[in-house]
Amino acid sequence: MQVTETLAEGLKRELKIDVPANDLASKLDDYLNELKTKANIKGFRPGKVPVGHLKKMYGRQAMAEILSNTIQESTQKAVEERSERPALTPEIDLPEEDAEKILAGDADLSFTMTYDVLPEFEIMDFSGIEIERPVVEIADEEVDQQIAEIAKNNTPFDTKDGPAESGDRITMSYVGKIDGEPFEGGADENGMLVLGSGQFIPGFEDQLINLKAGDEKVVELTFPEDYPAAHLAGKAATFDVTVKDVAAPGEATVDDDFAKGLGLESLDQLKEIVRGQIESQFGALTRQRVKRQLLDKLDEHYSFDLPEKLLESEFDVVWRQVEEDMKRNEKTFEDEETTEEEAKAEYRKIAERRVRLGLVLSEIGEKNDIQVTDEELQRALYDRVRQFPGQEQQVFEFYKNNQQALASLRAPIYEEKVVDYILELAKVSDKTVTKEELEKLVAEDEDDA
Question: Residue span of the signal peptide, if any (predicted)?
Fold first, then answer.
């Protein structure tokens, strides 16, 4: 094999690789001799099939396989001998007219491979990075407010005599019909509805006011034009309703008994859980803010040329998302007070930042032997599977049999571990803020993204 560098410009590389026809012929002979020991062809004893006969039957197919393997092996060897790291899989150019001659054994294998190499850069001293971590202190009043909301959502109801009023809970059976025919999903034997909650189609609840247990009523209304079920949207419908029970709201007393009714041991345990949930909510925002500061610091520090193909690939992903969002929201570039060219320039900068930071984080992780464990990946996979109730097995098999999809689960875990590694070495100071201040900081970060 002979390797000739034909282009070395910035990060771009082009190599011409030549493999003599004699080498290919030798590989073909080895292949056929191996096949000879296994071939079972009518008219010949096992192991006695002439190589010439095998070549006539399988030569072209064998040579095609040999070519594919030789190209793969030679490109990998060429890169390894040059101690280079391609940003993406090298592109191979083998002219079609040459391929036919090579398959026939009448020409040397000669092809070009082009690729971008990963840029080289020094890992910075992370101890010089200063990060301010905004921390929200959870006041007792905040916890009490959340518990009051829980109590509101668990309001006790007691059966009452007399007509239903707004705020009362009705238990009913109903059958929905369009043009006199029941429709799928429009019936329930023991449906519960708090009047005034807005849980049902507009106009439904209003027509139940003043009904008593045992009353029957035909509710007439029209489904909204934007109703999620397309076959019902805008359609006139009737509901045959029978009221089974009318219950008036009581008042939940927030005490140990209330907490036990939620399956907990005491009110103190409820408060502890609620505080933890609030802290987790704001903790996620704090993490988001801290990570954004860190990435901004890295982006400010690093400046190097990017692999063109890698950048184009990332920009295509970003731009496709932009186009889908605009189409879904029925927006134009004029609506956003910009032009397509200006928007592309802006989103190209975003793609450049993503690629640059991705390379930096990857290099930091590699140099410091940061790994995603099998257990971490397994947890991420199970979390993903749980997002598709009823399709768990199909989703599990999809990820197990698709390395690219599995890599998409690994990537964010790896990134977070690298970020954690850097933060351990950086100077991180806490600053107490209100929840409104934290939310504003995060919103500003999102606006600048």
Answer: none
More confident residue, 49 or 384: 384
Tell me the two tokens of residue 339: 């032009």
Q: Looking at the predicted structure, is the pLDDT value of residue 40 above 80?
A: no
Distance CA 198, CA 205 (A): 8
Whole-prediction pTM = 0.69
- Cβ neighbourhood burial of 231 (10 Å; 0-12, 13-18, 19+): exposed
Cα of first residue to Cα of last residue in the chain, in angstroms, is: 49
CB distance 89 to 307 below 8 Å: no
Report the CATH number at residue 243: 3.10.50.40
- 37 has pLDDT over 80: no
Within a domain: residue 308? yes
- Domain extent for 412: 286-448
Number of H helices, E strands in the chain: 12, 11
The alpha-helical segments, DSSP class H, found in 9-50 are: 21-36
Residues 238, 367: one domain? no
- Helix, strand or coil, per DSSP, at residue 274: helix
